[in-house]
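thought: fold this chain, then report.
action: predict
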Amino acid sequence: MYEAFYNFKEKPFSLTPDPDFLYLSPGHKKALAYLEYGLRTGEGFVVVTGEIGSGKTTIVRRLIRDLQPEGKLAYVVNPRGSFRQLMRIVMDEFGVVPVAEEASRERLLGAFKELVFRRNAGGAPARIIIDEAQNLDIGTLEEVRMLSNLETDKAKLVQIVLVGQPELREILLAPELKQLNQRISIKFHLEPLSLDETARYITHRLHVAAGGDAPVRFSTGAVRSIHGYSLGVPRKINIACNAVLVAGCLDEKTSFNAEYVRQTVFDLDGTAEFGAAQGDDRFDEPEPSPEPAPAKADAAAAETPADERAEQAPAPPKAEDPKPDRPEPKPRRLVRKIAFIGATAAAAAGAAYWLFF
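observation:
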C-alpha cells in the first residue's frame, strides 16, 4: 500500500518470518550460533525458547536456509496430536511416507530407522526441528527422546531441535522428562530487545526494504514510544511501525515523533499502553524544543528603563480556544482507522499462513 510512497522494494515490517529481514541482535546472533553449533557438531538435543513474537521462527528459517546445502531436514510447525501423527509429518518432510497415508506406528518407526542409517552411510545425520514444541504433551516428548537412541559409538544419528515459548522450559522440568532433560546439550532463552537494539532493529529493516538509506526517520522519542509499547518484542515493534507508516503515507509524512507514534498506535489499539523504555542512556535525552530567545535581545531589554518597558510591552495575546486532542476530522480518522485495520489483518493472515501451513 505504501511501498511506492516511501520507495520501498517491499514492506519493512511484515509479520511473516522472512530471514532476509533478520536483525542479529546479540541475543539473536547467539541463538543462531548455538543452533548451528549444535547441529554441525552432532549434539543430540538443542532447545531454544523465547516470548511470543521474539523472532524464534525467523531464526529457524535462517538456519534452515543456511543448512540446505548439507541436505534435507524435517521442519515441523505447530505440532499437535499423538506421537504417530508427529512421525507422519516428519516422514512426509523427509519424503519417505506421505502424510496422507495412514501408516501404522510400527511402519513409521521402521521407515525412520532405515532413513537414519541410509543418511548416516552418506555422511548426513537426520535432523528434526520442531517449532512451537510447547504444544507437545509429555508422553510425546518422551517418545521423541527415544528417537535419539539411534546412535553409533561416536556420533548421534538423529539431531533434534525444540523451539518454543517459555512454558517449554517448565514442561522439560517435569519428573517424567528427566532423561530427556539430561540429553539436552544446549539450552538458550531469547530475551526481548533493549531500547538501543529496538532502534537498530527499526533502522535495519528500513534499510533492507529500501535497498539502502530509507527516506523515513523515527525520532528518539518515537523509538522510545515504540519500545514502551512493544517491550522489545519484534512482532509488536513491526505492528507499531507498520501502523505508523500507513498513517504517514495518508498524511504524506516521512518523519515521525513520539506524539505521532502514540496517537497512531492508540488509534489502532485503544487499549495500547506505553511502558517506560529501558536501555541506552542516550535515549534519555528529550526531543528538540524551540530555542530560547537570543541573549542579545535579553541584554537590550535589561538596559531599557522599567517604565519604558511597560509602555513597550505588547498587549497580552487574545485567548484562543483550546486545541482539540485530535484535530483531524472524523471522516479522515475513520479512513485511517480502516486502513490500519486492513493492513494489520493482511499481516495477520500472512502470519497465520506460515503458522498453520
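thought: worth noting. Residues 189 and 305 are 70 Å apart (CA to CA).
final: C-alpha cells above.
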